[in-house]
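G.,

No rush on this.
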Amino acid sequence: MLIQLSIENYRSIKDPITISMLASLDPLHQIYVRKSANLALLPTSLIIGTNGAGKSNVFKAVKYLQALLKGDIKEVKVFPHFSSKADEPTRIDLQFTIANKRYMYGVDLGKNEVKSEYLYVVEQNKEKILYLKDGNNYQYDESLNVTFKQVLDKIGQEKLLLPLLVNYDDNEIIKKVYKYLTENVIVIMSETEDEVEIYNEALQDFKQMGVEAEINYYLDDIEIGINAFVKRDDDVYVRYYNGEISINEESRGVKKIFTLLVLINKVLKEGKVLLFDEFEKHMHQAFIKYFINLFNDPLINTNNAQLLFSAHNTTLLDLRVFRRDQIWLMDKNLKTMATVCYSLYEIEDVLENENIELGYLLGKYGATYEFKHGGVVKNDEESN
């Protein structure tokens, strides 16, 4: 399970921000809380805030790290947005659990070089270095001794260690961590190319993985006038009470419902982590809340799958759906133009039965707009 994600000096994210999936002492919806590696973790979190605040950059940072790990990008780049940090590295750090053990993996990326990279495991509440690269200096656990001697001759400053170690070692921990970061964490951006890619993957999964009954079980819950999705003649059809139509001829909305049903079914079954930018795009709020509840419900989400997503739809701000520590507010500091991120749980006097959508729209929590003389301005307090 994902514990937390920290990012620094990446595009609009100037100073370190952390999105945490750790459960607080919030008494709301205790049934949501899961246990992994002796930690109390949350199955869902929402990022919401003003346009241009940097919500998408959270997802872009993780996707960029995955591309480096997979070798899809050969040249290491940095993404400083601020001249004051132009010579400082971009930092991306993930903490997560695998098989009830806690790991920490992070990188500092400079121009055409990996300045530092580390992998820790937490055992008996103590951090143990599996490996640490800091410039030209290396530390590593004795279990990696032989492998490191092979790898150090081949590594350049522009390469990550983790994918090299996977190729040269049978170390199960290294393999599990690499698989977790590259396969278990799924990042979906709002761009059209990602939308097309996951739709095509959903079609293939539906045709090949025998999930027709499972998908139609969820479809029965939604009740949108579609009787079933049917596989036939190497195609997928949408069945209505009065006939069928190829899904390729359907609306964007129907295609997205199909895609999400197949994708989320896979994520739930395999206990994956789904990071989804603009999750509610082209979808009615009722469907989005239904999908969120699939993750929150421990009777359905039995494998500790997680969903971290961004959205603009304020109707999702609902304490009947979320705990206060599951809602992250993102804003842009008007003095520095840097991303600011904080949890609703950090704000004092947010009641358990509060109408947080109304409170948000009224500017009680920040990360929103006020309208003045037909224009849009921020609260003065938000830029302090």
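When you get to it, here's the other one too:
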Amino acid sequence: MNPIISITIGLSMAVFSTQLFAQESANSSHASPYAGFETRAIKSLSEADIEELRRGGGWGLALPAELNGVPGPAHLLELKNEMGLSPEQIAAIEEIFTEMQAEATMFGEQLIAAEQAIEEAFVSGNLGDDRLRVLIEDAETARANLRFVHLSRHLLTPPLLTEDQIVLYKTLRGYGSDPCTNVPEGHDADKWRQHNGCE
């Protein structure tokens, strides 16, 4: 084969490969991280979100309390045996939890309904700035009320606990110390390390 033809073919293949690679890169960089969300009934909430809201779950709304050493009633009840909570402590925490869950369920339903209203407004196409602002304010009011319910109940638990119990709570939850080297007594070390993402 003629060397000039070989070089021309080689260069053409290189240019074509580069263009193909560039096109594939461009296509993949346009993919949305939200791909698949379009099939959700309420685009802003996953099925797991809706389940969590309907059961009065925390939905991560109380992280400022939880991660700053202010225990939540749900986790205290889960750890009542490991923490050695007294019957009186358990009864008081159960009362806080029951009230919290009832209110959280109510505000969770309000948030779901508000997000559904936003969804329906966009589907209908009959939406202006004023109506959109009202819909967003409704959703954010429900979210704020829900967050208040969870955070405020964290404030009620420390007076019921001893300092040692709060320290133990933080350790059992894996906060403040290296959970990979400090496995709480009574826990399976391998499962604990796996749960906490240790190597």
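The chain is about 65% helix and 0% strand. Residues 87-124 form the longest helix (38 residues).

Enjoy the weekend,
O.
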